[in-house]
């Protein structure tokens, strides 16, 4: 039995979404059609999103009419749920720096910055390492790149496997750190304590006893940052290539009537 705030939803199922390439184009705003679909879905089901990025990026992509994004989703899980909200209210959070310690963190970041400095890529922009509450995000391109530069890098990376190689190097160099690595979005990798992948968000919903938990994501292959939640036995996973495919599946599964 779900709690009182969700008792009026006809379908007692939780639907969770990745953000980039699932609800929105990478780092761009959701379309009016997507917003309409999500409003209709929330009248029937319980819904939330889970993203490796911090909350400010979801505000840019998913906030509507001046409201915070955490008001328009039943659950909001920035940083894989290490920062979390339920019905607009914050839930307990976890800290990457508290887990790894300052000295180990500095050793990790110094190595990454030296590694990226020696990489020969077509262009480099600012912010190669972004510290977040529950993880570290690393990109050989730099987070200050434009949308087109991100698309160009994503294609370049498919041919040269820069991120895959970096993950292999870090796994070997820092094998004793208890960290996991996943390729996320178009330009970066996420680094987080093992077990702090997107499945972390599920601990925030266990008390609700939802009939089913569905998860929609694009990087659902091994090594992708949606894989663990997609493959988790507690979820029903759906692979999508873009927001249009997400809308199509939602209409087929939940919005037929």
Descriptive overview:
With 257 residues, the chain is of the alpha/beta class. It is 33% helix and 18% strand. It has a seven-stranded mixed β-sheet. A four-stranded antiparallel β-sheet has the order 6-7-9-8. β8 and β9 form a beta hairpin. The longest helix is centred in the middle third of the chain and has 16 residues. The chain is globular, with a radius of gyration of 18 Å. The model has no long low-confidence stretch (mean pLDDT 95).
Task: Summarize the structure in short.
Helices cover about 35% and strands about 20% of the residues. The chain is built from 8 helices and 11 strands.
* Unreliable stretches: none
The strand order across the widest sheet is 5-4-3-2-1-10-11
Helix content: 25-40%
Residue fraction in strands: 15-25%
Largest sheet: 7 strands, mixed
Element order: H for helix, E for strand: EHEHEEEHHEEHHEEEHEH
| Whole-angstrom Rg | 18 Å
Mean pLDDT: 95
Structural class: alpha/beta
Extended strand count: 11
Q: What is the terminal separation in angstroms?
A: 24 Å
Shape: globular
Number of helices: 8
Question: How would the blueprint of this fold be written?
Answer:
Layout: E1 14-17, H1 32-44, E2 46-50, H2 55-62, E3 75-77, E4 84-86, E5 89-91, H3 96-100, H4 102-117, E6 129-131, E7 136-138, H5 147-160, H6 162-173, E8 179-184, E9 188-193, E10 213-217, H7 227-231, E11 236-239, H8 243-253
Parallel strand pairs: 1-2, 1-10, 2-3, 10-11
Antiparallel strand pairs: 3-4, 4-5, 6-7, 7-9, 8-9
Helix pairs in contact: 1-8
């Amino acid at each position: 039995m779900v709690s009182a705030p969700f008792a009026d939803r006809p379908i007692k199922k939780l639907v969770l979404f990745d953000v980039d390439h699932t609800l929105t184009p990478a780092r761009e705003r959701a379309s009016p059609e997507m917003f309409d679909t999500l409003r209709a879905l929330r009248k029937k089901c319980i819904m939330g999103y889970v993203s490796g990025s911090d909350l400010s990026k979801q505000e840019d992509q998913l906030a509507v009419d001046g409201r915070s994004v955490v008001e328009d989703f039943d659950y909001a899980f920035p940083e894989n749920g290490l920062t979390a909200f339920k019905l607009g209210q914050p839930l307990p959070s976890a800290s990457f720096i508290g887990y790894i310690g300052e000295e180990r963190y500095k050793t990790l970041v110094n190595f990454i910055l030296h590694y990226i400095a020696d990489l020969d890529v077509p262009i480099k922009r600012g912010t190669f390492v972004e510290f977040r509450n529950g993880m570290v995000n690393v990109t050989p391109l730099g987070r200050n790149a434009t949308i087109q530069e991100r698309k160009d890098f994503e294609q370049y990376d498919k041919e040269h496997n820069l991120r895959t190689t970096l993950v292999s190097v870090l796994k070997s160099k820092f094998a004793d750190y208890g960290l996991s690595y996943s390729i996320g979005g178009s330009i970066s990798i996420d680094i987080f304590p093992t077990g702090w992948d997107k499945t972390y968000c599920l601990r925030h919903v266990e008390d609700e006893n939802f009939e089913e938990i569905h998860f929609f994501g694009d990087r659902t292959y091994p090594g992708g940052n949606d894989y663990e939640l997609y493959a988790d036995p507690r979820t029903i996973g759906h692979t999508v290539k873009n927001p249009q495919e997400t809308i199509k599946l939602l209409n087929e599964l939940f919005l037929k009537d």
